[in-house]
């Protein structure tokens, strides 16, 4: 049956292709799983998948998933909640980048900056270093491990090295072993231990 008028235009409310015809109250598109509140709740809340992960699996845009989360009154996660369940990759020795510092790091740029190089060879730094080692008794101030010949230890700046006037202040420096120093500067240090912002 032809469903166009005598000028070849579609007749309003009629479908030229019988395969696209639908009954009143039905949607012309095939239903998607994420239209269903229970299904979406299971994936997002119970299985803790992100909106982008669900969208990727369903072959749609993330905004589609966010729209239906809002429509079904499913509360979306805060940034801190997302970070607490997000997989950030392997940590420690399981991470292929573990221990790749200095020349073996892909981010190596030929050594420390000229400013740091100049400071670490200055008389001021050379005088403060033994004082830090003596005060901290050659012991990591986090894990309390005492240095042996095989261990690598660092002097850590509590307030960033960028604050020039505190670079060689004894109270701003502590001794840390290699692993603890890496931990201090990692995302695992959520409470920002041994780190301090300069007071304005």
Structural domain tally: 2
Low-confidence stretches: none
Estimated structural class: mainly alpha
Total count of strands: 2
Fraction in beta strands: 5-15%
The major pleated sheet works out as: 2 strands, antiparallel
> What is the number of helical segments per DSSP (H or I, 4+ residues)?
7
- The geometry reads as elongated
User: What is the string of SSEs from the N terminus onward?
Assistant: HHHHHHEEH
Mean pLDDT: 82
Q: Whole-Å distance between the termini?
A: 80 Å
Oligomer: single chain
Radius of gyration (Å):
30 Å
- Strand numbers in spatial order across the main sheet: 1-2
- Percent helix range: 25-40%
Description:
10% of the residues are buried. The protein has helices spanning 37-46, 51-58, 62-71, 79-85, 114-120, 123-135, 178-184; strands spanning 153-157, 173-177. The chain has seven helices and two strands. A two-stranded antiparallel ribbon has the order 1-2. The protein starts with 36 loop residues before the first helix and ends in a 16-residue tail after the last helix. The mean pLDDT is 82. With 200 residues, the chain is mainly alpha-helical. It has two domains: 18-85, no CATH class; 113-200, no CATH class.
Give structural attributes.
200 residues, mainly alpha, 2 domains, 7 helices
Please give the structural blueprint.
Blueprint: H1 37-46, H2 51-58, H3 62-71, H4 79-85, H5 114-120, H6 123-135, E1 153-157, E2 173-177, H7 178-184
Antiparallel strand pairs: 1-2
């Amino acid at each position: 049956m032809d469903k166009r008028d005598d000028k070849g235009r579609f007749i309003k409310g009629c479908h030229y292709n019988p395969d696209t015809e639908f009954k009143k109250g039905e949607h012309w598109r095939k239903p998607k799983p994420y239209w269903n509140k229970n299904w979406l709740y299971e994936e997002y809340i119970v299985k803790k998948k992100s909106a982008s992960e669900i969208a990727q699996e369903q072959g749609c845009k993330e905004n589609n998933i966010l729209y239906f989360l809002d429509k079904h009154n499913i509360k979306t996660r805060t940034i801190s909640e997302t970070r607490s369940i997000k997989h950030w990759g392997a940590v420690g020795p399981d991470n292929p980048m573990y221990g790749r510092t200095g020349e073996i790091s892909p981010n190596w740029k030929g050594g420390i900056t000229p400013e740091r190089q100049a400071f670490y060879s200055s008389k001021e730094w050379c005088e403060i270093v033994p004082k830090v080692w003596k005060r901290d008794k050659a012991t990591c101030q986090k894990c309390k491990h005492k240095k042996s010949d095989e261990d690598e230890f660092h002097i850590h700046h509590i307030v960033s090295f960028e604050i020039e006037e505190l670079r060689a202040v004894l109270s701003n420096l502590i001794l840390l072993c290699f692993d603890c120093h890496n931990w201090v500067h990692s995302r695992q240090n959520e409470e920002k231990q041994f780190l301090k912002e300069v007071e304005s």
